[in-house]
Amino acid sequence: xxxxxxxxxxxxxxxxxxxxxxxxxxxxxxxxxxxxxxxxxxxxxxxxxxxxxxxxxxxxxxxxxxxxxxxxxxxxxxxxxxxxxxxxxxxxxxxxxxxxxxxxxxxxxxxxxxxxxxxxxxxxxxxxxxxxxxxxxxxxxxxxxxxxxxxxxxxxxxxxxxxxxxxxxxxxxxxxxxxxxxxxxxxxxxxxxxxxxxxxxxxxxxxxxxxxxxxxxxxxxxxxxxxxxxxxxxxxxxxxxxxxxxxxxxxxxxxxxxxxxxxxxxxxxxxxxxxxxxxxxxxxxxxxxxxxxxxxxxxxxxxxxxxxxxxxxxxxxxxxxxxxxxxxxxxx
Length: 332
Fold this sequence. Notes:
The radius of gyration is 21 Å and the shape is globular. By secondary structure, it is of the alpha/beta class. Helices cover 34% and strands 21% of the residues. It has eleven helices and 14 strands. The relative contact order is 0.17.
């Protein structure tokens, strides 16, 4: 099934193959490589995974099945081998094998478009780090994955991306983008947990008499976390880059040492912070209400918690429709 945006032509509605790629709504899985972690998460027995694993175990095919159409890939070279990482945590999965998994999925899902966004190149040694970009480019080439060029994004349409990235007649498409052409819109203040220590110091100094800085995104005071979350979302989607760059809204909690410490005290983890706070359910409500005028790449944690419902909402609200084999437009 092919998904196309609809535009009005006179009194008729026709599919717009020429829609710019940076106006095409896609769900991206934040730190997608962490779906290859092993050993479990959300348990006191797995403290590293608890605060490094952003996606459910099962790899890239699982994330795509759950609604992802873009993957956030953090690249790492160790002893000459290209892998992935999340900050200081390395992911023991050959990148070439992960790409094979993606190609197999698009081969079985006709006319779907998948974006692979590779960034944060690093390495075990200086030589490893220097070789990271070229190894990613070679991996794309070896896998037969078309690499988008940053200077071509201004004129990149969905049709062109799908044609360039096609893996075969009657199959889907996959394209890569390496460390450029993306407005990431990162905001470290969007946290599930407030700063208890800062609040205690303010109270001690007599400058704060009521709890303000302390909150939990799934507690009775969750509105304090979500007020900042919604402010960020509204600001981010109010406009889009005029130079054709792709752009994301990071619709997930950010973590630092303080947030991790508080999350640990609450017996939680990244995946449960999303599900207990019902982030995706709330996003669906906001999108259906027409809150966000534009959307390109919506980055999330824990994609399998309602990801397909979120994708359906994006495609419905932003006037993306399906087209059958006879090319008749059918609104979802």
